[in-house]
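In the previous chapter we treated chains in isolation. Here, by contrast, the input contains two separate entities that must be folded as one system, with a combined length of 484 residues.
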Amino acid sequence: MTALTDDWEAPTTETAFGYEPWLFQLMLDQLEEEKELDIGWVYSVLEKLAERYQLEDVIVNIDVKNFGAQLFRLGRRAISTDLASRLGATPGVYCNPDVVPEVERDAVRAACQLVLSLHYARYIAGTDFLTKIANEITFKAAFEAACANSARYGWAFTYVLIDIDEFKKINDTYSYSVGNDVIRRYGLAIRRSVRSGDVAARLHGDEFAVLLSNAGGHEVAGFIDRLRFNLGPLNLGPSNLGPAIENVTFSFGSATSPRESTDHDVIEDLAEDRLKEVKKKKGFTR
Amino acid sequence: MMSPTEEDFELELRSLPGVLNVEIRKDEYGEVDAVTLIVFEHDPEDVRVEAKHLVSLYFPSAAVVIEDASSAIVPRESLAPRVALVGASFNPENGTCEVELNFTGRIGIGRGGSGQLFGGAEATLLALRDLGFDVPFYLLSVVNVATTRGWPVVVTLRPFSDGADMFGIAQADSDVLSASMATLSALNRFLSMSKNAS
C-alpha cells in the first residue's frame, strides 16, 4: 500500500492521468441530466470527436467481455463488410482523416469500452439470462410500485402467474438443454404477448409472472389467447424439439388490484391459490 | 439521443453471437423501418432467426438485413496506419508550396519552391521525411495532362538505387493539392509496406 506523503504532488496536466477532459465532461453532462451511460453515449463521443477534429468519418472498435468485438460508426451507420472484417480484429479508433493523436484515440476507446460494459452490466442485472425478460428482482420492484399506485390512486392492474405443466417430466425425458429451450421459447412468447407498459418476468424455474397494467381483470383472457397463439411452434420459428415443445401446456392464476387487494402479499397468494386449483383440476402437482 | 428502449434494443442485437455492427434505420416519420446487422464468423442464418424474433418484439414491421463480413478477406497489411494529407497550399507571393501530413497523430511539414506542380510534389517528399520516413526516391517529373474531365497531375518518382519508377495520378481543386496527392499515390505501396516511420 502506498502512503500519501507531503512530497506527493497532484498531476497538473490531463496527460499525466492519461485521460481526456472533454470525455470526462461528456460523462458528467450525461449523468447530470440523470441519463444512463449507455450505447447512445458512445455515439455522442464519436460525434464530439468528429466535431473537434472535423472528421468525415470515425469508427471505434471495442472488445467487451460477453460481446466480443463491437464496431460503432459516426452517425450510427452500418459498416461495409470488408471494412468490418478488416477492423474487427483490432480494437482502436479509426478516423478519416487520420489526424487524432494516439493518446486521445486510446482514451476514446477505453471510455466507450467502459460505457458498453456498464450498459450491459445494468441490463443483465435486471434481466433473466435465459429468456431475456425481467428477472425476479426487477419484477418485485415493479410489482410493489404497482401495488403502491393502486392503493394511492386506484390504478388497476392484474397479476398473472404462469407455470409450465409437468416441466420436470420434460427435463427427465429429454434433457436439461431441451428444458432450457422450452423455457426460452415461453419467455419469447410471453414477451410477444404483453402490451407496452406491461411487465413480464421469469421468477424461477418454469414459473413466470406478468403485470398487466391498467387492467381490471377482463384483459387476462386476451393476454392468455395471445400467449397460446404465440406459443404455436410455427410462430416461434423452426424447432428441432418435436413433441417436446408441441405438447407442452401451461396453467395460470391471476388476481386484480385494487378490486381484490392492494397488498402485494395478498395478491400474490390469491394468484398462487388459483394456479394451484387449476393444476389440481388438471391432475398435476405444483 | 435514442430512447432507452432503442438503446436496450441495440444492446440486445449486439449481444447476439457474431454481431459486429448494427445500424437501425428510420423512415421519414422517425419509425424504425430496417435493421442491418454485420455478422462475423457465425452462421448468418442462425443470427437472422434470432434477430427476427428480437426485432419483432420491438418493431414488428421493420425489415432485418444480415450481411456476412466473414467472406470479405482483406490482407492484414491494410491494418497499418496510413499517412493522411492535412493540407497543401501555394503562396503566390514567394512562389513556395507548403504541405502538411499526419501519421498516427504526428505532423510533418515540407516546403518546396519550384511552382505549384514540382513544388507541391517536392514539399510532400520533404513532409514525409519530416515524419521520419526514409523515402529512397527522387522526383523525375511532375506534369498535368489534359483529359475530358480536367487536368490531373502525374508524378513520376525514380528510386536512388535500381528499381522501377513509381507513378501517381490525382486531380484536386488546385495543382499543388493534385501534385501532393499524386506523390502520395505514387508512394502508396511503399508507404503501406513501411509501417514505421523512424
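Chain A touches chain B through 46 residues (CB under 8 Å). Chain A has a mean pLDDT of 86. Compare these points with the single-chain example from earlier in the chapter.
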